[in-house]
Amino acid sequence: MNVAKLLAWGIAxxxxxLPIVGVLNGxxxxxxxxxxxxxxxxxxxxxxxxxxxxxxxxxxxxxxxAIDLDQIRAAVAKLxxxxxVEARKRWPDAVDLIVYEQQPYARWGEERLLNRRGEIFSVTxxxxxxxxxxLAGPDERVGDVLQFYAExxxxxxxxxxxxxxxxxxxxxxxxLELATGAVIEIGRDDAKRRLARFLDVWPNLAGSKPTPPVYxxxxxxxxxxxxxxxxxxxxxxxxxxxxxxxxxxxxxxANPQALLHGADRPSVRTRSHAAADFQDSIPDxxxxxxxxxxxxxxxxx
Length: 301
Known about the structure:
- By secondary structure, the chain is α/β, with parallel strands linked by helices.
- Among the domains are: 32-101, Ubiquitin-like (UB roll) (Roll), CATH 3.10.20.310; 133-231 and 253-289, Cell division protein FtsQ/DivIB (Rossmann fold, 3-Layer(aba) Sandwich).
- It has helices at residues 2-24, 49-56, 69-77, 142-156, 191-206, 256-259, 275-281, and strands at residues 37-41, 82-90, 94-101, 104-108, 112-115, 120-121, 134-136, 163-168, 174-178, 183-187, 213-217, 223-228, 285-289.
- Helix 2 packs across helix 3 (69-77).
- 19% of the residues are buried.
């Protein structure tokens, strides 16, 4: 008797639960509670409403109770420039989406970007995004690069020099590029101390030349080397210039852009070369030595 009662209760519960489970899973009756509206909120700077709707629409056919919001979030999040997605149901027939776009903070390497949370992401045309600082380094050290960039901005504040790029080599060497195109080689060791030493004397150096430097090498124990661009020659009055006149034969002209590609840089031949040897071999290099009569500028570290 008890077995028969239990069996009857089981059948009754099954008959009650089955329609509920079927509706919740979209097995049947989905047409009775269709999702007729998809409301989208976003900035629409890089992602259009049409793209978002196209990604979400195929997942809305199971009915209001059966649709999987996690699947909808994942589908929309795969769109380029989408950082994260919030989704919720709204009775009786709507799904609301809030789409947050990536906020690029900097370029990372040649073809990727960094968002404001320090996360690397890829989008088509990332290399053409303008107006962002250019950062580069091993992916696992993105946090170190961001921190060094922030600290450098603080150090350079008030110097009149603007940082356009920071690069960390696989061997741990730091390099800055200024908005003027000048390259500052810092090296691996004591990067903060070397920068501080350069910025301490920069006001005096800046007043000694009418043109900005194109290359600064800080990889010395107690000094650094500065390469200056040549000032532009005065323009002669109209009609006074002789045919063929121009730069003197053999005199180089500064090409700051070439430095960005590794060309036209001063080379250190041996450890015995000091600042005087640099000055003799490359006329447009100006060595600077921190006053210390008992020390010499050693080789690059």
